[in-house]
Amino acid sequence: MSLIASRSAEQQAMLLDIAYEGAYWRPMCASCGVKMVVREGKDSRAMFWGCVNYGKLRCTSRIQLRSAEK
Description:
Layout: H1 2-5, H2 9-19, E1 36-40, E2 47-51, H3 54-57, E3 60-62
């Protein structure tokens, strides 16, 4: 943080643009490094993050809803 604070306002804005580039809020698969997508379970109908390579790798992550969304 101190390195970022030592930069000029223009440089800080550029770094912020890079940090928010793309779907930064979407988790990445720990196994293959691609962005995960929201999937729905067949039996429980529970939503979860699934890798686009889910059929091959079975990479998943639970979706945690914020209190306002529950």
